[in-house]
Amino acid sequence: MKALVVADEVEERLWTSAVRNHQADLVIGAGDLPYEYLEFLAGALDVPCVFVPGNHDPDLSGYTRYGGLSMKDGFPTEWPGPAGGVNADGRVVDIGGLRFAGLGGSVRYNGGPNQWTQRQQARRARRLVRRAGFRQWRDGRGVDVLLTHAPPRHCGDREDPPHRGFDCLHRTIESLRPKWLLHGHIHPHGEPVPDRVIGGTTVRNVVGHRIMEFQ
Question: For residue 26, how far is the Cα from the chain centroid?
Answer without folding.
Answer: 13
